[in-house]
Amino acid sequence: MANSLVTVKSEHICDSVKFLTLHTQQPNGVFVEIGRIIHGEMIGDVLGADTDASMTAFCLIALQESRSLCSATVDEFEKARPVVRWFNKQQNVGGGYGSTQATMIVYQAVAEYWASPKEPEYDLNVDIMFPGMSRPERYNFNRENHYTTRTTKMVSLYYALPKEKESDCTIFNLTVELTEGNVVHSLSFCSFVVISPACFCHVPYLMRNK
């Protein structure tokens, strides 16, 4: 940040952060250029094929580096989280983001974010219920274990996949992976894996066979 080298009023920096989050950030987290740059050759590939990734990376770096200076006056730093999620979806095979310049900028931006994130505590309770079970299997996800894979077994007819029950919680994501097990009495035992990448709500979850 320039304020570590020269005198810059904090309100100038914080007003710029407000402008970025209010006027240039899209609903999916990406930042777009809303102005017109005449001499585009001065900024390398930021106006090339990787415009979105480069622009978003620059904005994420600015958000994170201004956090300590503007956190008291700008309540927009939570918007950095969808930016990181958007980056994860843009990654190419092999880990890059198009050009070398865009890739390096993105890695710097994500590193800035993970160096000082202020995320809420993870505390999610998941109940999984199958037909024939007397009580559900209960799992708790918290900051210490939310990346740990859980596995349980269920009885399923051949080619009968379970259907997820609809939930009103819009910030809970659950991935279910079915793997065929041993065949016993014309039934196959299938195990499924519960993966909770980033959960912030208490949601009972019901799996049923068809």
Detailed description of the structure:
- The chain is an alpha+beta fold.
- The protein folds into two domains: 2-115, Glycosyltransferase, CATH 1.50.10.20; 123-208, no CATH class.
- It is 29% helix and 20% strand.
- The chain contains five helices and seven strands, in the order H-H-H-H-H-E-E-E-E-E-E-E.
- The chain has helices at 10-24, 51-65, 67-70, 80-90, 100-115; strands at residues 123-128, 137-142, 150-156, 163-164, 175-184, 187-195, 207-208.
- The strands form three sheets. The protein has a three-stranded antiparallel beta sheet, with no helix packed on it. A two-stranded antiparallel ribbon has the order 1-2. Strands 4-7 form a two-stranded antiparallel sheet.
- A hairpin with an 8-residue loop joins strand 1 (123-128) and strand 2.
- Helix 2 packs antiparallel against helix 4 (80-90) and helix 2 packs parallel to helix 5 (100-115).
- The chain is elongated and about 65 Å long.
- It starts with 9 loop residues before the first helix and ends with a strand.
- Residues 2-71, 74-113 form the Alpha-macroglobulin-like TED domain.
- This is Complement C3.
- InterPro entries: A2M/Complement_sys, Alpha-macroglobulin_TED, Terpenoid_cyclase/PrenylTrfase.
